[in-house]
Specification:
Layout lengths: L8 E5 L5 E12 L2 E8 L11 E7 L5 E4 L4 H32 L1
Antiparallel strand pairs: 1-2, 2-3, 3-4, 4-5
């Protein structure tokens, strides 16, 4: 998956056949596996901090497919990595604003 594909919209279907649109907002790698962070586009009740994380695998045709994470330890590692990335972004933002203000 390339940088440009990260803003791609995907449609996931639940067990009852209902379709939901998600935007891929980020792709991260943890212990050699790739994971897509998905944000719901059509769920009005979704919390803006709420995201879905699924493992990215490659099928026999070479296409990326999204797979549920069933292992609790794997899930915890991925969530910890995602939260760490969010914290780093939050830490960087104030520093950027400070640098901009001191340059004026």
């Amino acid at each position: 998956m390339t940088e440009n594909e990260r803003d791609e919209v995907v449609v996931l279907t639940d067990d009852e056949g209902n379709e939901f649109e998600f935007q891929i907002i980020d792709v991260l790698e943890v212990e050699g596996n790739r994971y897509a962070v998905l944000f719901p586009l059509d769920d009005e009740e979704a919390d803006e901090d709420e995201a879905l994380i699924m493992r990215l695998e490659t099928d026999e045709d070479g296409d990326d497919v999204l797979v549920d994470i069933d292992d609790d330890q794997e899930w915890e590692k991925v969530v910890a990595e995602w939260e760490s990335m969010l914290e780093e972004e939050e830490d960087l933002d104030p520093e950027v604003e400070l640098e901009d203000e001191t340059e004026k």
